[in-house]
Specification:
Layout: E1 13-17, H1 24-35, E2 41-46, H2 51-62, E3 65-72, E4 75-81
Parallel strand pairs: 1-2
Antiparallel strand pairs: 2-4, 3-4
Domain UPF0033: 15-39
Family: Belongs to the sulfur carrier protein TusA family.
Organism: Pseudomonas amygdali pv. lachrymans (Pseudomonas syringae pv. lachrymans)
Length: 83
């Protein structure tokens, strides 16, 4: 993960998975990534703390790049670049 690679406001698509429990935020993100072109950036908003582990593992295993992640008052934000 490289925090300096992308500014948080830069993304090609945004997915609000707030209120969903794992694994639904990750499953919805995978579906959204399938729609995007290679190199596109997806921002995901989640509220499930378990999503941190899920998105980190997913990025490592899938080849997609987890560009940045933030936690703010129980909201988890992820920026993924599609491989």
């Amino acid at each position: 993960m490289s925090d300096a690679v992308v500014r948080p406001e830069v993304c090609d698509a945004e997915l609000d998975a707030s209120g969903l429990n794992c694994p639904l935020p990750l499953l919805k993100a995978k579906m959204e990534l399938n729609r995007l072109a290679s190199g596109a950036v997806l921002k995901v908003i989640a509220t499930d703390a378990g999503s941190q582990r899920d998105f980190r593992t997913f990025a490592r295993l899938s080849g997609h790049e987890l560009l940045h992640e933030e936690v703010d008052a129980g909201t988890y934000l992820y920026w993924l670049r599609k491989a």
